[in-house]
Amino acid sequence: MSSDPSFELNSEGLFRALELLEGRGASRGASTSLPKSLPHVGIGEREALERLAPGVLGRATYLDAGHAMAHMDPPTPWITWAVALWSARLNQNLLHPATAPFAREAEACVVEWLAPFFGMNGGHMTAGSSLANLTALWAARDLRGVRKVVASSASHLSVRKAARILGLEYVEAAVDPRHRLDPATLPGDLSDACLVLTAGTTSVGAVDPLAGIDRAGWTHVDAAWAGPLALSGRYRNRLSGVDQADSVAVSAHKWLFQPKESALVLFRDTEAAHHTLGFGGAYLAAPNIGVQGSHGAAGTLLLATLLAWGREGMAARIEHCMDNASRLQAFISAHPGLEGFPDGGTGVIVFRPASRKVEAFSAALPQGLASPANLNGEAWLRCVAANPNADMEGILAAIDEAGRR
Ligand SMILES: Cc1ncc(COP(=O)(O)O)c(C=O)c1O
Prior knowledge:
Layout lengths: L10 H12 L22 H12 L21 H13 L10 H14 L7 E5 L2 H16 L3 E5 L4 H10 L2 E5 L19 E6 L19 E5 L24 E5 L11 E5 L2 H7 L1 E2 L8 E2 L8 H37 L3 E3 L7 E6 L4 H6 L7 E5 L2 E7 L7 H13 L1
Parallel strand pairs: 2-3, 2-4, 4-5, 5-6
Antiparallel strand pairs: 1-7, 6-7, 8-9, 10-11, 11-13, 12-13
GO molecular function: pyridoxal phosphate binding; sphinganine-1-phosphate aldolase activity; transaminase activity
InterPro entries: GrpII_AminoAcid_Decarb, PyrdxlP-dep_de-COase, PyrdxlP-dep_Trfase, PyrdxlP-dep_Trfase_major, PyrdxlP-dep_Trfase_small
Protein name: Aspartate aminotransferase family protein
């Protein structure tokens, strides 16, 4: 039987895919109209690329655009595109050491490189921080017998979700005016609780007091957003106290510039955590650790980026984003027509027009510059410094202009 060319390297097809990428989806024919039901006969790979390019590439938001600052989603470096191509071709499954010997080593390597920045001794990758939080809380329940989860009202919804899945009671603590957990509102007895502290809240980038609350059965730090500041000599003190945690979640698909889905769950005592989270199976050569079964080589993409840039290169890009955030915050503070929310110190800038409706002001901004944030029932706008290519001159001019309309 002759081999199926769909599974062979097609350099011409892949080259065309690159051309389409370069032209942002401008394609012959340029229509993405899709059949209403599964086609009986396919149109072939080359035609499928042409058909999809105007939609996939042409109707996308480019996160490296000069005004892109609305979300915690960064652009990704080209090295990750190249390694993602290799990974798609290999389709390794990290569940099976035989199919993915190097990819497993790559994941172990990035975990080993990054865990010490948080005072942890290991961990594993997950497909995002919702899963990293769930995994950490699962370890807390099974290793320490915690019965409730205590987190601030500004914590991410994934913490509530994890409590629900794990059958744990969810107890909410209040926040101070800067949206940091207020320790005075914590229950007196935390011995049967997993305390979740956030480093970089989703709405305003606030960092909870990470040090000094050492009376919980287990302490987890959700550093999905701000965790990568640990790599920066300039900013790592913003996370001081994180090394006292039992576990830490960090998103690599946020401020480590990785394609989705990429995050880490790190543990102070990885051996104990992985023992609890590990399941053997008749078809497995190594235990399956954590929530996911089959999973891909996200670690290899992260390894490639860290190898290419080093700690210094990664920190320089994060610091550049922080400089952009400081510039925006200073502009807002000095602008008579704008009101700023207190700066959380992690590159999330929240503001609103001082005397106009937020919705009208927001409609006058270029799309992708700011996202809505509802704080204490009031409308605000949020910019996130995740884009190292942000054109700050243009962004400041656009905000100024929106204020004049
Ligand atoms: C603080 C925080 N924790 C957890 C998450 C969930 O991460 P993911 O979307 O990767 O599941 C987010 C997402 O924005 C977040 O901001």
